[in-house]
Automatic annotation (TrEMBL):
Natural source organism: Helianthus annuus (Common sunflower)
Cofactor names: FMN
Record-linked Gene3D superfamilies: Aldolase class I
EC number: 1.3.1.42
The name this protein goes by in its record: 12-oxophytodienoate reductase
Pfam families: Oxidored_FMN (PF00724)
Organism lineage: Eukaryota, Viridiplantae, Streptophyta, Embryophyta, Tracheophyta
Length: 254
């Protein structure tokens, strides 16, 4: 378990991005002081969006024009530059809510410091594919050309919040195809996370909801300590601001 941090923020070219850049700098400094490394993850919200940057009309849900494709590419370019300005060492392009294959043209930074996050098995907002396994392998093979740092993929193992299905699909063919570091995520606990790495089904396991609810997550895993239960009603909320830094630390729960 490392102390590296993965984060997301508003670094796309909007009215507030300059404040976001400045706000993240002291946070990055603290992570550096503790010997950690930042991976910054950014992605276009796509068909989930209600408005575009600067309160413009969203570009989806609809097919993009050629001109709009270039606009989206430039959003990623600007976001990558803003991330560099905020002193992040790594950038990670999030899974496709828009066109993942633009990432090399978009970033114009060293590709050995760039990762990508994909969800070929996802069906969110009607974005599913008829052959997600083949799609995942195709994407992994295509990404090898660019020698990027890592490929972070969501496992097709969640049926509901508290129910997992480990047998319908597997990321192993995609992992075998991709030549860089392969990261799996989606519903892992300590035991099955360790098992999937030991069985060479992935190189690393990423944790999201559990980490959000347990800010001392690495320590809890190290001590095999009990975990706080996350509250999904506070996810992606901004008013009131709860569920981000107010979960109890391990020392205060015993």
């Amino acid at each position: 378990m490392t102390r590296n941090a993965v984060t997301r923020s508003r670094l796309f070219p909007t009215n507030g991005y300059a404040r976001q850049v400045e706000a993240w700098k002291p946070i990055v400094d603290v992570v550096h002081e503790k010997g950690g490394i930042f991976f910054y993850q950014f992605g276009h919200i796509g068909r989930v969006s209600m408005t575009g940057p600067n309160d413009q009309a969203p570009i989806s849900p609809k097919n993009l024009t050629t001109q709009e494709i270039h606009i989206v590419v430039d959003y990623f370019r600007v976001a990558a530059r803003n991330a560099i300005e905020a002193v992040y060492e790594r950038c990670s392009k999030r899974q496709n809510r828009r066109v993942w294959w633009f990432y090399r043209e978009t970033l114009h930074i060293r590709v050995d410091k760039v990762g990508i996050r994909l969800s070929p098995f996802g069906y969110f907002m009607g974005s599913g594919d008829s052959n997600p396994g083949a799609l995942g392998r195709y994407m992994a093979e295509s990404l090898n050309e660019y020698k990027i740092l890592h490929c972070h993929v969501l496992e097709p193992r969640i049926k509901s919040e508290d129910e997992k299905d480990d047998h319908l699909h597997s990321l192993v063919p995609m992992k075998k195809t991709f030549k860089g570091t392969f990261i799996s995520a989606c519903g892992y606990d300590r035991e099955d996370g360790n098992n999937v790495v030991a069985e060479c089904r992935t190189n690393l396991v990423a944790y999201g909801r559990l980490f959000l609810a347990n800010l001392d997550f690495p320590k809890r895993f190290e001590l095999i300590a009990p975990l706080n239960k996350y509250d999904t009603t506070t996810f992606y909320t901004h008013d009131p601001i709860v569920g981000y830094t107010d979960y109890p630390f391990f020392e205060t729960t015993i």
